[in-house]
Amino acid sequence: MSRILVWDLPTRLFHWLFTATVIAALVIALVVDDDSTFFQVHMLLGLVAGFMVLLRLVWGFAGSRYARFGSFLFAPKALVDYMLGVFRRTGERHIGHNPGSAYAVYAMLLLSLGLALSGLWMSSWKAFEELHEVMAYAMLVVVGAHVVGIVLHTLRHKENIALSMVNGHKNGDAAQGIGSSNAIIGIIFLALTAGASAVIVNGHDEGARQLTLFGQTYRLGESKYDGEEDHDEDHDEDHDEDHDRRGKKRDGHGRHDRDDHHEHHDDDD
Asked: Which residue in 72, 62, 76, 61 sits closest to 95, CA to CA?
């Protein structure tokens, strides 16, 4: 076997940028209070991750051999057999994604899109807040399982697959490699990601806790449901104040009528 190119540059760039973005967003969500201004960074990072996933979906159909989804479509039985093989130390080595990493990739892509969309819509529908939280914990589980899988694969096959996602190379037959790293596409990926990030940041109003994208404004953090509660409280306070004013006004009229009555009675005397 020889050193062959397996992972093209766009796939590697996506992998590490996506990893850094998701981890940063998860850490912020876990350690920063959601009322904090800095928590809004978590939401912006989630949107950037969602945009990168859209680009990865395109590359999953138009990319090189091992970047295409068709190269790591496995039936559930293949996943079960692979996991049993890992523990029995009989697991098959894969040049591209193995069944375990394949299912992890699909789960993370879908969860990232769901988190980005629910993060935007949670300001309008209370249910999306709960859905967002469930998916966030699911993402933590998937990421953790993926890391464990990488460690197990590295120990089982004596192959540093994390490093292969840096330099793009693995040991294999020459016929199994890809012919190009698609560097130009990698540069385009970076440019599109940077442009989308700039649009998201420019549309962000930190003071108002809102984000404007393509003419549509989204509130960040606080749901419309909570706002309605605040509105109801304000309405109740205004109602109480108005009630007090009317009560004082009636008391004033009552005192005025009593005074007039006493004055009239004195005149009769």
From this structure: 72
Task: Enter the CATH code of domain 2-220.
Answer: 1.20.950.20
Per-residue pLDDT tens digits for 247-262: 554 555 554 454 554 4
| Nearest Cα to Cα of residue 176 among 96, 67, 63, 102 | 96
Sheet holding 204-205, edge to edge: 204-205, 210-213, 216-219
Residue 49's identity, in one-letter code, is: A
Give the separation between CA 84 and CA 151, rounded to whole angstroms: 16
Run of H or E including 232: helix 224-268
Q: Dmax over Cα atoms in the chain, in whole Å?
A: 126
Note whether 98 and 153 are within 8 A (CB). Answer: yes
Q: Which H, E and C letters describe 66-95, residue by residue? A: CCCHHHHCCCHHHHHHHHHHHHHCCCCCCC
Which letter does DSSP use for residue 34 in this model? T
Phi, psi dihedral angles at 217 (to 5 degrees)? -105, 135
Q: Quote the pTM value.
A: 0.81
- Residue 171: strand, helix, or coil: strand
pLDDT digits (tens, 9 = 90+) for 52-86: 999 999 999 999 999 999 999 999 999 999 888 87
User: Which 8-state DSSP code applies to residue 210?
Assistant: E
